[in-house]
Amino acid sequence: MTDFFAGIPKIAYEGPDSENEFAFRHYNPDEVVLGKRMEDHLRFAVAYWHSFAWEGQDPFGGRTFDRPWFGDGMDCARLKADVAFEMFAILGQPYFCFHDLDVRPEGATFAESRANLEAITDYFAEKMQATGTRLLWGTANLFTHRRFMAGAATNPDPDVFAYSGAVLKSCIDATHRLGGENYVMWGGREGYETLLNTDLGQEAEQAGRMLHNVVDYKHKIGFKGPILIEPKPQEPSKHQYDFDVATVYGFLKRFGLEDEVKVNIEQGHAILAGHSFEHELALAASLGIFGSIDINRNDYQSGWDTDQFPNNVPEMALAFYEVLRAGGFTTGGTNFDAKLRRQSLDPADLILAHVGGMDACARGLKAAAAMLEDGKLEAARAERYAGWQGAEAQKMLSGQYGLEEIADYVERSGVEPEPRSGRQERLENLVNRYV
Ligand code: XLS
Ligand code: NI
Ligand code: NI
Q1: Is 337 close to ligand 1, i.e. is its CB under 6 Å away?
Q2: Residue 344: which domain range?
Q3: What pTM was computed for the model?
Q4: For 23-36, how does the pLDDT look when each residue is reduced to its tens digit (9 = 90+)?
Q5: What is the mean pLDDT of residues 303-313?
Q6: CA-CA distance, 427 to 434, in Å (whole number)?
């Protein structure tokens, strides 16, 4: 045991009236919601990078956190892992996620970095066995080191493409070894800073080729989980190719990968793309590519990807409503890709940020479940489209009627559209009863 979280108890559910700061008020893992335990609905994951690797820097200043594991070398990496698993035991969340760079020191060569990753993977395997914590997904950091400054798979330099492929292989191997349930690709630098030096067509070919390689390799080693792309429109790059769910779907179609790859949708990235989170979730579900979520929100004024813990229950309710409508998570889960504010220095801040986020999600889930059970929203939606059940409507939708038949039908039967209320305010009032 380290003493980093000394004095902090394991967090238990105590109900909404508890006065204890170190307790869940709404997240009760064993409580059954719509026939399933809350833990199995939400499938929470802690993000290793923000909680244990990020040092508190922002564009104006460097490290604010003082953590005993900051530094190079395997001893620091192991201490970091010890503290991380102690936090997982305190929170009791079932999953975690990591990038290679979060967990191992960078070596002098690729082979050394890979060996470091393998050593930490072994260390994780023992701890996962001992604690029961599982891996929701693994991923590769193909954006921090200066070699990736012009992209990874989409780099103009084929040596960087090669290096990125080697990194991807090592990270898929580590994820597979640890029983990861998904593998995520976030193309942090797959985009451009200026079109003046960018060949869009060439870079798309490279990205498509690399994604094919990843899918082929996953099948080759028998990795069963889906590959997930995490859309983001920009920042830090000027433009990112995986802009949003719709753009990713177009890319997957173009390269014939729409049945192989799904999406990991981040709340803050949806907002950066000018969408609501629920829009991205509903669209992914309708396209059959809904995979997993990153639940961190942005500050709505700053316009940055500020990666804050979720605290807005009405927003969570609408998000989990879409998750439930999509049938809930299968391999996916709710990853806190969220970091403390840089002034939140205390170990207790790190624990309570997660506790609050888990409670906000639990309240959202319960509200969403109640809205679904009540059925009025879905009934109103179904009623709005009910006309499509008619025989003539079915002929139009199936293509049996082309424009000529449709025109004939309109004149024959004297169709005269009658506008009907969309009832938006009434539906909003309905939602407000639950949040
Ligand atoms: C950054 C991304 C990143 C991914 C994993 O904006 O959200 O944290 O989730 O690389
Ligand atoms: Ni992000
Ligand atoms: Ni993310």
Answers
A1: yes
A2: 12-374
A3: 0.97
A4: 999 999 999 999 99
A5: 95
A6: 12
